[in-house]
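Reviewers of the previous submission asked for a worked example of the structure-prediction workflow described in the proposal, so we include one complete record here. The input consisted solely of the amino acid sequence. No template or homolog information was supplied to the procedure at any stage.
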Amino acid sequence: MIEVRGLTKVFGTVTAVADLAFEAAEGRVTAFLGPNGAGKTTTMRMLLGLVRPSAGVATIGGRRYAELSRPSSEVGAVLDTAGFHPAHTARDHLRVYARMGGHSRARVAEVMDLTGVAAFAGRRTRALSTGMGRRLALATALLGDPAVLVLDEPGNGLDPEGIAWLRGLLRGFAAQGRTVLVSSHVLSEVEQVADHAVVVRDGRLVASGPVHGMYGRPAVHVRSPQAARLRAVLADADTETDTEEAGSDRLRVVGLTPAAIADLAAAHGVPLHEITPERPTLERAFLDLTSTGTGGQGGGA
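From that input alone, the workflow returned the following structure tokens.
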């Protein structure tokens, strides 16, 4: 279990994280989402003891990272792939980290097989592709067979096969009752792997809850040669209506079903050329939540 309570970090005059609170529970994949500069990486670094909070606390199993007796056996983390010695092979790198963490050489072979690193174990780390580097970083995080994984953009550089493999790895990890906190900008993939999402903007929590509970009210796309008249009609029906493009005949309507929109248009003599329900997606919900001026949903973990 990861718990973040009142977490705040101020760099000079910039507040990177402000009174942040959320949980990532055992047995589920929690997505940590936000636009660039939202404070995600700073939060993860505070969780892992790499940055000192200005206020608040972040714990893993009820303890700060610095209080863990064998950190690499309790938490596996991937924040970047810059920690490879360029002259080491992938196998050398894992053996060094295994010795540092007190893990067996047999575990090195296990994680190489699990992550696909075995296929390039003899290659120097300076010659690894981005995807190979991600696999090696994940293998390093898994050396201690930890109960918690903290991953920042783990899919960067992976090909479609690698993304599918990563999805299975994270789902399997959570299915064993372990905790996964993962930050990613690939929202279509997050939608497939995560159970729960925490969304931040400007260092503050804007939403927290089950992924499929983030979608909000469904939208309908409507096209009419009399879009302005249709907008006026819909304005009286407790809807949110946006023109999709400047001067466009297309509207995006939230708050009414396609049938209700069609009935209103017919009653007012407004012709419709198209009416299409929008498939709810995490990407749409994310954009709604993180756009300037948007209020939050939830706020609990």
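The chain has two domains: 2-86+134-213, 219-279. We consider this example representative of the routine output the project will generate in years two and three.
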